[in-house]
């Protein structure tokens, strides 16, 4: 096929061979043009002059119906079918029996293979299987250039090639461009046809056993690459891995003469084509389940893993979704950007991306089907957009914006050692958030005065087993050593809800994990786990200041119980003659609305409090911040949200309790401006937000701003974001 003969001769040879093998009087190949039209490229049995002249519009005729449905069609009397389209130039009048199969690539029909016979006959199941196998091989050979050269393929849509713009949501700020690397990209089958069918059946069977064993290990808390993902998701994986229909489809595909890899690829393409047309979100989600299983099965067959891949230096990672461990598996210095089909700004992948200062855009529907490995893409974390295969002028525009952004970063760097004092002389304490050892590299660069929130759960989420006492102690000591004299506030383990660790999961089920046993509730229910962490913190901070904060306190009794465990661990250390921290401060996170009406009882018991705006607002508005269907149902700059913050600040001022805001709001200039107008003077922002927020602080006249905010809090609007922006511009605040 790949000889020196012209492309048309090779195609003519192919259709002649297929016609003979299928005992058909007609065999034709149609390929999809970039316009969507299906063009007759070769035929055996129809009139030769129709080649490259006959074109069918999208969805036209039986050929168009095969491409539209991405499924084979078998008819004994094609002319009587309502979709039949008569083209006199083809001379197909005498042919009644029709069998067509799509040429599938990436779940898309790039063409159609058709065989026809004069007699009215029904093609049997074996013949349908045969033409599907041939169509699969044909699709691969066309796409690889074995049949057609680059010139002939120039206008053939074997894969999306036109520039596209997708609108999503910005998860991590920044701009980047580079070449696509598909997360757990499917390993392309090198060999499509089996030399020994029995050997391939054995390989497939063993790979399926290995896949299921891998999932079982994850369910039991053993080794696995999905550590940190939901137990329920893993169980769903196991259920689908055992799905009889999926397993049977794989087995049948191998029995048609395909290699194990080609069988998996074929079944995956069939699922893509069928499920992608479904409107039901649940059914579409099942596509992703089977897609992930197929990718993992291909990797089991190939013995490959993401961490072993040789990536280009300008990689843009593309995935359906990611866990924090998944992103950290890749060489950080080669990942320029991240594009996700799903996720949310509060997802773990987004948080890690912000910590690593990797631009990230999510909620890009249909992203993976629109991209091929190596495509050039732009990640716009400022507007929440992705540009696929951008035009040169678009790339130049983004490069110019990146230069401007680089200059801004240089300006922020100049402010590193400048105290955060407002234009009217008010001192603001500006800390940064952290959770990974890599975050510590940003502490000096940002000029933050300390770490206002160290998320200890990340160490647990990226580990495949429960971190031991010595490893926890080592991390906390590293954090304190790096911070030096700067304060660090450690938040105890905040897991549960959307952060479930397989090695800590039980057989119990919660219908609503976000409102279930998570954070401090889990720590109090499993005091051994919390005491182990407190012991590590006390050991690491020996002779130094230690600030410990408990998350998701909903009642005063919960805080009392948690603080008692601190006292127990201090007594344990004293009995053994161990050095304790020189100064111990214990605080609570205000994330549950219930505390808003019990601050008078809580605050006297605490040394400080910190407001976790992410959770506080999702509970206030009954909208899951990790659920993209409802995460935008409220604006933190709404009067109810701001009034709640103002009430907390007032109560803390009355009792002299230090209070800070450590949610994502503190890292965005406009939102941070609102916090300052409410009276907050302690903010803890993500590393990338410290510079912009400090610039805002230096330009703000708080006395005037607070007068303006007082008038806005009484608004009946769902959001006063626009009014705040107007106020900031009027006062020349740099937002």
From TrEMBL:
Protein name, per record: phosphoenolpyruvate--protein phosphotransferase
MF-aspect GO terms: kinase activity; metal ion binding; phosphoenolpyruvate-protein phosphotransferase activity
Xref: InterPro entries: GAF, GAF-like_dom_sf, PEP-util_enz_mobile_dom, PEP-utilizing_PTS_enzyme, PEP_util_C, Phosphohistidine_dom_sf, PTS_EI-like, PTS_EIN
Subcellular locations according to the entry: Cytoplasm
GO terms for cellular component: cytoplasm
Enzyme class, broadest EC rank: transferase
Keywords, sorted A to Z: Cytoplasm, Kinase, Magnesium, Metal-binding, Phosphotransferase system, Sugar transport, Transferase, Transport
GAF domain: residues covered: 6-152
EC numbers on record: 2.7.3.9
Cofactor(s) required, per the database record: Mg(2+)
Source organism superkingdom: Bacteria
Gene3D superfamilies, per database record: 3.30.450.40, Phosphoenolpyruvate-binding domains, Phosphohistidine domain, PtsI, HPr-binding domain
Pfam families, alphabetized: GAF, PEP-utilisers_N, PEP-utilizers, PEP-utilizers_C
Main location: cytoplasm
NCBIfam families: PTS_I_fam
Catalytic activity: L-histidyl-[protein] + phosphoenolpyruvate = N(pros)-phospho-L-histidyl-[protein] + pyruvate
Residues in coiled coil: none
Family statement drawn from the similarity comment of this UniProt entry: Belongs to the PEP-utilizing enzyme family.
GO BP annotations listed: phosphoenolpyruvate-dependent sugar phosphotransferase system
Key word Magnesium present: yes
């Amino acid at each position: 096929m790949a000889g020196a003969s012209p492309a048309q001769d090779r195609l003519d040879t192919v259709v002649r061979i297929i016609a003979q093998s299928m005992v058909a009087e007609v065999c034709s190949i149609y390929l999809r043009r970039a316009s969507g039209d299906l063009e007759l490229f070769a035929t055996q049995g129809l009139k030769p002059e129709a080649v490259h002249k006959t074109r069918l519009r999208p969805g036209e005729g039986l050929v168009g119906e095969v491409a539209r449905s991405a499924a084979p069609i078998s008819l004994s009397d094609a002319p009587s079918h309502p979709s039949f389209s008569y083209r006199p130039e083809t001379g197909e009048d005498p042919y009644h029996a029709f069998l067509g199969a799509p040429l599938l690539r990436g779940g898309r029909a790039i063409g159609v293979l058709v065989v026809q016979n004069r007699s009215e006959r029904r093609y049997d199941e074996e013949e349908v299987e045969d033409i599907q196998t041939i169509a699969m091989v044909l699709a691969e050979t066309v796409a690889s250039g074995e049949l057609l050269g680059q010139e002939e393929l120039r206008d053939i849509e074997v894969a999306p090639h036109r520039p596209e713009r997708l609108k999503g949501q910005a998860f991590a700020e920044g701009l980047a461009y580079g070449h696509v690397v598909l997360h757990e990209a499917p390993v392309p089958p090198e060999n499509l046809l089996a030399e020994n069918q029995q050997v391939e059946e054995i390989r497939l069977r063993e790979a399926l056993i290995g896949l299921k064993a891998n999932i079982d290990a994850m369910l039991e808390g053993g080794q696995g690459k999905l550590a940190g993902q939901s137990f329920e998701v893993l169980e769903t994986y196991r259920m689908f891995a055992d799905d009889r229909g999926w397993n049977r489809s794989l087995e049948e595909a191998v029995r048609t003469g395909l290699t194990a890899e080609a069988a998996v690829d074929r079944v995956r393409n069939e699922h893509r084509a069928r499920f992608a047309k479904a409107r039901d979100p649940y059914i579409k989600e099942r596509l992703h389940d089977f897609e992930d299983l197929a990718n993992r099965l291909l990797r089991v067959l190939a013995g490959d893993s993401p961490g072993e891949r040789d990536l280009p230096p300008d990689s843009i990672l593309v995935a359906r979704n990611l866990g924090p461990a998944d992103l950290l598996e890749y060489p950080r210095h080669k990942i320029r950007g991240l594009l996700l089909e799903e996720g949310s700004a509060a997802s773990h992948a987004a948080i890690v991306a912000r910590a690593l200062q990797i631009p990230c855009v999510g909620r890009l529907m249909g992203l993976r089907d629109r991209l091929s490995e190596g495509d050039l893409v732009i990640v716009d974390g400022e507007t929440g957009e992705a540009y696929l295969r951008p035009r040169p002028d678009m790339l130049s525009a983004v490069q110019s914006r990146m230069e401007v952004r680089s200059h801004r970063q240089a300006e922020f760097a100049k402010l590193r050692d400048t105290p955060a004092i407002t234009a009217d002389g008010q001192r603001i304490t500006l800390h940064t958030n952290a959770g990974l050892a890599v975050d510590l590299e940003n502490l000096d660069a940002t000029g933050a005065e300390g770490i206002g929130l160290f998320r200890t759960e990340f160490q647990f989420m990226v580990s495949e087993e429960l971190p031991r006492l010595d490893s926890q102690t080592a991390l906390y000591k590293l954090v304190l050593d790096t911070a030096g004299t700067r304060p660090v506030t450690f938040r105890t383990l905040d897991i549960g809800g959307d952060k479930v660790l397989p090695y800590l999961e039980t057989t119990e089920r919660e219908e609503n994990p976000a409102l279930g046993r998570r954070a401090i509730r889990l720590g109090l229910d499993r005091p051994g786990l919390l005491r182990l962490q407190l012991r590590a913190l006390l050991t690491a901070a020996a002779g130094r200041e230690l600030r410990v904060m408990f998350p998701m306190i909903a009642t005063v009794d919960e805080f009392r119980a948690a603080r008692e465990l601190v006292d127990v661990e201090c007594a344990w250390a004293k009995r053994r003659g161990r050095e304790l921290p020189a100064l111990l401060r214990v605080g609570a996170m205000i994330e549950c609305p219930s505390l808003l009406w019990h601050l008078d009882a809580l605050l006297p018991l605490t040394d400080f409090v910190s407001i976790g705006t992410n959770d506080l607002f999702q509970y206030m508005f009954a909208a899951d911040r990790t659920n993209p269907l409802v995460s935008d149902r409220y604006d933190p700059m709404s009067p109810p949200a701001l009034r709640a913050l103002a009430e907390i600040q007032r109560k803390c001022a009355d009792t002299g309790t230090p209070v800070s805001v450590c949610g994502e709001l503190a890292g965005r200039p406009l939102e941070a401006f609102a916090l300052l107008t409410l009276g907050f003077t302690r903010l803890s922002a993500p590393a990338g937000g410290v510079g912009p927020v400090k610039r805002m602080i230096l330009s703000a006249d708080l006395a005037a701003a607070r007068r303006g905010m007082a008038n806005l809090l009484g608004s009946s609007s769902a959001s006063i974001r626009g009014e705040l922006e107007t106020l900031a511009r009027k006062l020349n605040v740099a937002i």
